[in-house]
Amino acid sequence: MAYTYYTEEGLRKLKDELAMLKTRGRADMAKQIAEARDKGDLSENAEYDAAKDAQGLLELKISKLEDVVANARIIDESNIDTSKVSILSNVKIKNKKTNAIVNYILVSEEEADLKSGKISVKSPIGKGLLGKKIGDSAYIDVPAGKLEFEILDISR
């Protein structure tokens, strides 16, 4: 697995989620299994089967999250080059067709939150903006067609 880069806050959230799943998540799952087991014959107990399936999914999620955390690296924000768009860049762009101006912060896929203006570097717009400089135009294929954006500003 390749390294995935996170902000300090993003990695802390992942670690907090992992800790919660390993403690409260597992305890809740054990309780559900015990309650289902108490309802009688396990060979015909749909609740028990469902609880065991859910336990398997929980353990899979924990395992995947452990891999993500193990391969996570914190981005050294002091070394980010603001002469071109990169991860953690705050980018001000103008839609050339509508003249609408928007600000986005490019983040890892797991930290993306459009409501907060954080878009993934792996999204179509994120990919299209990476490496661009102020004044450059970015032509980006989106489901609605091809958009052209002008890079107005790049900051940290």
Major beta sheet summary: 5 strands, mixed
Low-confidence stretches: none
Please state the average pLDDT score.
88
Supply the helix-strand structural class. Answer: alpha/beta
List keywords for this structure.
two-stranded parallel ribbon; single chain; elongated; 156 residues; alpha/beta
Concise account of the structure shown:
Helix content is 39%, strand content 25%. The chain is α/β, with parallel strands linked by helices and 156 residues long.
Q: Can you tell me about this structure?
A:
By secondary structure, the protein is α/β, with parallel strands linked by helices. The chain is 39% helix and 25% strand. It has 3 helices and 7 strands, in the order βααββββαββ. The protein has helices at residues 8-37, 46-70, 124-129, and strands at residues 4-6, 72-74, 90-95, 101-107, 118-120, 137-142, 145-155. The strands form 2 sheets. A 5-stranded mixed β-sheet has the order 5-4-3-7-6. It has a two-stranded parallel ribbon with strand order 1-2. A hairpin with a 2-residue loop joins β6 (137-142) and β7 (145-155). α1 (8-37) packs antiparallel against α2 (46-70). The chain is elongated, with a radius of gyration of 22 Å. 17% of the residues are buried.
